[in-house]
């Protein structure tokens, strides 16, 4: 079993920044592909960014140039640096990783509002 714990969410004004962290623990023997999804009220969960085991990254068009995903393999941790935040970025952000199957964190709330 693998556990994912997100942190770093909160309330921020438009144009501000936040850094989300996701720490993986448990039966981890390989560096997995990991990613961040988000779900806003009344909307479907959508992919925000992903990073492969080799470090290749992929972003949703809506966050390109503003968000950066990175990882620290030694700590089994993935980060999402979010800059120039907009009200439409408001959502619950979920971390996910694949170790034989998909694992999900519990989510962290990000609210962008003045």
Account of the protein in words:
The protein has 114 residues and is mostly beta strands. The protein is 0% helix and 54% strand. The chain has strands at 2-7, 10-12, 18-26, 34-39, 46-51, 57-59, 67-72, 77-82, 91-98, 102-104, 108-112. The strands form two sheets. Strands 2, 4, 5, 6, 9, 10 and 11 form a seven-stranded mixed β-sheet that branches. It has a four-stranded antiparallel β-sheet with strand order 1-3-8-7, with no helix packed on it. The termini are far apart. The model has no long low-confidence stretch (mean pLDDT 94).
**Helix amount:** under 10%
**Count of strand segments:** 11
Which ranges are low-confidence, i.e. pLDDT below 50, for 5 or more consecutive residues?
none
Number of helices: 0
Strand content range: over 45%
First and last CA, distance: 40 Å
Overall pLDDT metric: 94
Order of helices and strands: EEEEEEEEEEE
Largest sheet composition: 7 strands, mixed
The value of Rg in angstroms is 13 Å
What structural class do the secondary elements suggest? mainly beta
Could you say which overall geometry the principal axes of the C-alpha atoms support? globular
